[in-house]
């Protein structure tokens, strides 16, 4: 399995409804957690980011890809983004740089 799945572009909480048009900007979508990431602010997620980006880069010529980072604190070292790739941070998602 590639971990690629369809994400909802409309989120409803109680009576509030929010549209996320950026989610519809790419043909292929995956979540960082599909690649083993843990958003606890302590676990290094560098390998998960690298694996997700490497996996999703195969879709560069097929509408591109979007990586959704869910709410949490995502500790990571540096990683390189590719062309035709969108990194989408959901509300309350924070990327923390490791030292």
From TrEMBL:
It is found in: Secreted, Cell wall. InterPro entries: GH28_Enzymes, Pectin_lyas_fold, Pectin_lyase_fold/virulence, RHGA/B-epi-like_pectate_lyase. It comes from the Eukaryota. Its main location: secreted. Residues 33-76 form the Rhamnogalacturonase A/B/Epimerase-like pectate lyase domain. Keywords: Cell wall, Secreted. Pfam families: Pect-lyase_RHGA_epim. This is Putative polygalacturonase-like protein.
């Amino acid at each position: 399995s590639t971990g690629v799945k369809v994400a909802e572009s409309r989120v409803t909480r109680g009576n509030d409804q929010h549209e996320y048009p950026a989610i519809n900007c790419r043909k292929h979508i995956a979540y960082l957690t599909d690649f083993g990431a843990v958003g606890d602010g302590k676990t290094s997620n560098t390998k998960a980011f690298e694996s997700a980006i490497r996996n999703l880069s195969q879709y560069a010529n097929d509408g591109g890809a979007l990586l959704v980072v869910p709410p949490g604190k995502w500790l990571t070292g540096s990683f390189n983004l590719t062309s035709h790739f969108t990194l989408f941070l959901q509300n309350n998602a924070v990327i923390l740089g490791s030292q």
